[in-house]
């Protein structure tokens, strides 16, 4: 390229920028992900109707599992400050993974330390904490449909104490960028 920064930019940098822009547009395109969002909204609406008719938190959980099949996971977060101790570096790595990819991420290998890894509410992103704190005040409460780059989430409060918040989370994945590109051929 003869040390020409313009040629280098067109050959190397421009394709990267185009790819990033396409992915960002894809992730936020309501038309492309409308059916997945609608499914999450429909399930939430059914749960809200059941709640208005007096369904208990256990019944709502059962309905969520019926409608969401294998897309429902359960998590319990410790409320309050997260302890940071250097001897638990592996656990902190796992918490960082969960913070980045969500509470339902599954690790393929167990932590080196066999002790139970506790998840802390404060390790969630601040915006997610704010939404869940406001919307999940007691068992049976439902969150709004939350959009992430990878899908749509609905949280159901199973149990809330002064020290823990237990939730069930419906996660409906968006169609992947690669899948969408393949469909365009």
Estimated share of beta-strand residues: 15-25%
> What is the chains' assembly state?
single chain
How would you state the average pLDDT, rounded? Answer: 82
How many individual β-strands?
5
| Integer tally of domains | 2
User: What's the helix count?
Assistant: 6
Which terms summarize this structure?
185 residues; 6 helices; five-stranded mixed beta sheet; 2 domains; 45% helix; single chain; 5 strands; alpha+beta; globular
How would you sum up this structure in a few lines?
Helix content is about 45%, strand content about 15%. The chain has six helices and five strands, in the order αααβαβαβββα.
Question: What is the strand and helix layout of this fold?
Answer:
Elements: H1 5-27, H2 34-52, H3 57-68, E1 72-78, H4 89-101, E2 119-120, H5 126-135, E3 146-148, E4 151-160, E5 164-173, H6 177-183
Parallel strand pairs: 1-2
Antiparallel strand pairs: 1-5, 3-4, 4-5
Give an overview of the whole structure:
- The chain has 185 residues and is an alpha+beta fold.
- The chain has two domains: 1-29; 31-183, no CATH class.
- It has six helices and five strands; from the N terminus they run H-H-H-E-H-E-H-E-E-E-H.
- The protein has helices at residues 5-27, 34-52, 57-68, 89-101, 126-135, 177-183, and strands spanning 72-78, 119-120, 146-148, 151-160, 164-173.
- A five-stranded mixed sheet has the order 2-1-5-4-3.
- A hairpin with a 3-residue loop joins strand 4 (151-160) and strand 5 (164-173).
- Helix 2 packs antiparallel against helix 3 (57-68).
- The longest helix is centred in the first third of the chain and has 23 residues, at 5-27.
- The model has no long low-confidence stretch (mean pLDDT 82).
